[in-house]
């Protein structure tokens, strides 16, 4: 197993060393390498620690990617019959990111509100909002929204995150709600 860890240092075959020296000098004469011809010492052995560093870096990068995959997803099962809303945490710090997810029927406009005011959760480019009288509405794909993110309110105490269904005539009906507590001591 010593070949894995660099072999045995300090022991060297004198015939092999002489042969390597002759070959090195022969190549130096062929390419007119005056520096190699003037300095007859054998080249310094390089430490192979960089290889271990590269392996460790790759392992850490893979672990970082695997560890963050899906970490931001709020667990919520798709339910096309019963609208629901779920949050990543029911207690958040003021101004912190509040992650939530919606489920309900496809093809229906839904508006999310925080304490009665419409909010537009950010999910990158995966969600498109439709302007309605009730606020920005989104339609669910396969009965489930992606994880949406908004800033938690600044005031301490309980806050209601609600899901409103927007009818064709523009009227709204609250179909789901969850209480989120903002705690500044966190």
Percentage of residues in DSSP E strands: 25-35%
Low-confidence stretches: none
**CATH fold-level topology of the largest domain:** Immunoglobulin-like
Specify the CATH class of the largest domain.
Mainly Beta
What's the number of domains? Answer: 2
* CATH homologous superfamily heading of the largest domain: Macroglobulin (MG2) domain
Structural class: alpha+beta
How far apart the termini lie comes to 53 Å
**pLDDT averaged over residues:** 84
Sheet of most strands: 7 strands, mixed
What is the number of beta strands? 10
For the record, the CATH architecture of the largest domain stands as: Sandwich
| Count of alpha/pi helices | 3
Tell me what the structure shows.
By secondary structure, the chain is α+β, with helices and mostly antiparallel strands. It has 2 domains: 14-68, no CATH class; 84-182, Sandwich (Immunoglobulin-like). The protein has 3 helices and 10 strands. It has helices spanning 14-30, 34-38, 49-68, and strands at residues 84-87, 91-92, 97-103, 109-114, 117-119, 130-132, 135-139, 148-151, 157-166, 172-182. Strands 2, 4, 5, 6, 7, 9 and 10 form a 7-stranded mixed β-sheet that branches. The chain has a 3-stranded antiparallel β-sheet with strand order 1-3-8, with no helix packed on it. Strand 4 (109-114) and strand 5 (117-119) form a beta hairpin.
